[in-house]
Design a protein that fits this description.
mainly alpha, 11 helices, homodimer
């Protein structure tokens, strides 16, 4: 085979590899690991079963590559959280509340994405059979989101707008205040997506609850735009 | 057949019914709906496959009876929550914080029970295939827990120790503050059970965060045991 022929063969092989991965992802998300057969994967990918086995030794290898691939691309969550926090520090509690509201909103959008929820269901379903994969996913997705939140909150601890003995737990509290109600409901009832209005209410309520729990009104920056409530009214 | 013979036949049938349900529960929790066969159920229950089909038309009927059975017995959650709140109202914020800490602790114990978590994984896994069952479970277990919390918090709104525009959402916030971090981690990593010390820390932190977010220091009852913090320091 000449050089051009080799390139073209490699290109076709890569194309088949991608087609098999795409087909398997669709089937695993729809029917789970045990409910999916290599025959179905071959059929949906429009390749022979022999070709599937040339690319993946067995169904487990295919499953692992898919989950690892999605886990590796969890950067999307990190990006939307850090972007929503912004490059410039908020200098008042009101400003910070507005930022946290925005963070909670985009965080909700990302984790309630239909395919993210389906993947979450799939990995939870297989957590006992593939403990290493489920652990990696947990560490790279939910736990990493909380870590990023913690890093984004740290400057607000430094300037005195946020106070927490355990900032990691405070960040987790913010995450579950924001995501808990809607994410839990949609894990069981995939069709019960919050309306845009509900999504905004959930985000606003979580930002408010978090700042009431962990915010301070003392800041190294002027807090003119904040109305200080009477003692204990929070 | 005489009367005693009929009774004994009925007893044997009921015993087989229970044995089939117990075997199927074990298998579904271990291998999921699709990963379990009626042959395996018969084998583990030590009955013939014919007997299994005499009791349950198909695997779906068996699955439904198990999930409905567990869903119906979610009273345990309600009992532990209401018992932890106690019969007599706490009259100070400090007392209420101690109650909420106890509530959060027993709530964690119930939802992190290994079999409850396995069932949660199983139902989440099958949420797209059995939407009606998953919805019923959600309504009867997580959502009902939040409703009970809300009912238990209402008297504290009435006496002015708790203030919330939306008490249902405030109750959900308490639930996810308390349960979110550990429940989410254990859904993915079944072996990462909080130590008794971590469990107490999670419970205490959630009670404190909730009361900072939704508690007031004004109460119709004397609040002598509470140190009122300076304005806005929460």
């Amino acid at each position: 085979m000449d050089k051009a022929g080799k390139r073209s063969a490699a290109g076709r092989a890569a194309q088949k590899h991608r087609a098999i991965l795409a087909a398997a992802t669709t089937l695993f998300l729809r029917s789970g690991f045990k409910g999916t057969s290599m025959d179905e994967v071959a059929s949906l990918a429009e390749v022979s079963k022999q070709t599937v086995y040339k690319h993946f030794a067995d169904k487990e290898a295919l499953f692992r590559e898919i989950v690892e691939g999605v886990t590796g691309s969890s950067d999307a969550v990190i990006e939307v959280i850090t972007a929503a926090f912004g490059d410039v520090l908020a200098t008042t509690s009101d400003e910070l509340e507005a930022r946290l509201c925005k963070v909670a909103g985009v965080y909700l959008d990302v984790v309630l994405h239909a395919q993210v929820l389906s993947l979450r269901r799939l990995i939870i379903a297989e957590a006992e059979q593939f403990p290493d994969l489920a652990r990696r996913y947990y560490e790279q997705a939910p736990a990493r989101g909380i870590e990023v939140l913690m890093n984004c909150l740290q400057p607000y601890v430094d300037v005195g707008l946020v106070a927490a003995d355990d900032l990691r737990l405070a960040a987790a509290h913010f995450a579950y205040l924001a995501l808990g109600p809607a994410q839990d409901r949609m894990l069981f009832i995939p069709t019960e997506r919050p309306t845009p209005q509900e999504r905004n209410q959930l985000a606003a309520a979580s930002a408010r609850a978090f700042l009431n729990a962990y915010g301070t009104t003392t800041s190294t920056a002027p807090t003119t735009s904040r109305t200080v409530p009477p003692a204990g009214s929070q």
